[in-house]
Design a protein that fits this description.
This protein has 227 residues and is of the alpha+beta class. 49% of the residues lie in helices and 31% in strands. The longest helix has 100 residues.
């Protein structure tokens, strides 16, 4: 008589055990995947936070620089206003003292044989008309005008200026008149510039029984009042 053994419960137990192992593996894989995702997300979140901090710091620095730029702009604006006021005051000073200096410079530049008939000055533009005994006297007056200069000690007249020398010998006019000093050329500037002879015409003028030959002339030039 043969014995029969039922192996079905054993097989079912093995299957259940295998199923549990598969579930454990799947759960482990899922856990590992979730853990890896969490680590990745944490790293990305930390990186984002760090970048946001740097952005916030950069923005704060930009805001500080904008404040500084605004202050600099205000300073430049105030500086410009002060410069405009100083320029206006300087113009007023020129208007007050300019004509006096101009007359002083002109008086020291007119030769004995030259007479001034008309004089006009507007915005540093000067026009002079008159008559002289000869053309040479007119030329002498133009040289005298060109020789009037500004020095650190005031107005003066050039006595000697050598071509290759670095200094000029100046006779002071006005305060300290008659004093002669040598000044560096860099510290000397012309009082009159752009001297232009507009007219020089000879004419005869009768005085009683005498006929005198004269030269009528017109000059245009620029005057520099500033010291």
């Amino acid at each position: 008589m043969m014995l029969r053994i039922n192996l079905l419960p054993v097989r079912q137990g093995k299957r259940r055990e295998a199923g549990r192992q598969i579930l454990v593996v799947i759960a482990g894989v899922l856990f590992a995947a979730l853990a890896a995702n969490y680590v990745w997300w944490s790293q990305r979140d930390s990186e984002v936070n760090n970048r946001q901090k740097r952005i916030d710091q950069t923005q704060a620095r930009i805001n500080e620089l904008e404040k500084v730029i605004g202050e600099v702009n205000n300073i430049n604006k105030r500086k410009k206003e002060v410069e405009e006021k100083l320029r206006a005051l300087n113009d007023l000073r020129k208007q007050r003292s300019g004509p006096v200096r101009l007359m002083d410079a002109l008086a020291n530049s007119v030769p004995r044989k030259v007479a001034i008939k008309e004089f006009d000055e507007k915005a540093n533009q000067v026009k002079i008309s008159g008559f002289a005994a000869t053309h040479e006297d007119v030329a002498d007056m133009m040289r005298q005008l060109a020789g009037v200069v500004w020095t650190p000690k005031g107005m003066g007249r050039v006595i000697e200026k050598k071509r290759e020398a670095s200094t000029s010998r100046i006779e002071l006019i006005g305060e300290g008149a008659g004093v002669v000093e040598d000044f560096p050329n860099s510290e000397v500037s012309s009082f009159f510039s752009n001297i232009d002879l507009k007219k020089a015409a000879q004419r005869d003028e009768k005085t009683g029984n005498t006929t005198v030959r004269l030269v009528d002339f017109e000059l245009a030039l620029m005057a520099n009042y500033a010291t």
